[in-house]
Write a structure and sequence with these properties.
elongated
Length: about 180
């Protein structure tokens, strides 16, 4: 992916910026008004074709709608434009899990935590990955141990999670409890 060049002086003279569209898109996404959020993101991308935030929001909407190929495309574009964004890295990793790309997902989550060790969402997602791939990379006992360790790290951060992230954290906790019984 290679975005087109931006004519910054021309945009500045016209006083056109994508920020208001992106702010509205983020708010609309939070309220699950996906169609309106998509429209705002498209408008932002018309103004600034290399808006990582617009691609990120579009990717999250696609992920929520379970349109995984579309989510991967948008989140990959966001990642290319902003390769050090922890939120983008985690969302791309979540998407790659659906394609069975466990090693890439694992690497993205670990890289995220290398950049931002206190990012609870990455710890939760890494715990989920270890549980889902218990027999793959590490074996069941080691995967359970790693999942529990990541879950404890996330819990120690006193992270306030909401929505789908909170539900997933509760599911991970319950899975670990069931396995340990």
């Amino acid at each position: 992916y290679s975005p087109p060049e931006i004519d910054w002086p021309n945009l500045a003279v016209k006083n056109i910026f994508p920020s208001p569209y992106l702010a509205r898109a983020a708010l609309l996404y939070a309220f699950k008004e996906d169609e309106a959020a998509i429209s705002e993101c498209r408008q932002a991308l018309r103004i600034m074709p290399q808006s990582a935030k617009a691609y990120h929001i579009l990717g999250k909407i696609s992920l929520r709608r379970k349109l995984y190929a579309q989510a991967r495309e948008n989140l990959h574009a966001a990642y290319v434009l902003s390769p050090r964004s922890p939120a983008i890295m985690v969302d791309l990793g979540v998407t790659l899990k659906y394609f069975g790309e466990t090693k890439k997902t694992l690497n993205l989550f670990k890289e995220t935590l290398r950049l931002l060790p206190d990012y609870a969402r990455a710890h939760y997602q890494l715990a989920a990955l270890y549980l889902e791939d218990a027999d793959g990379l590490y074996g069941a006992a080691a995967a359970l141990d790693k999942a529990e360790r990541e879950l404890n790290k996330a819990s120690a951060l006193n992270a306030v999670l909401a929505g789908q992230d909170k539900e997933q954290a509760l599911e991970i906790t319950e899975k670990i409890r069931q396995i340990k019984r």
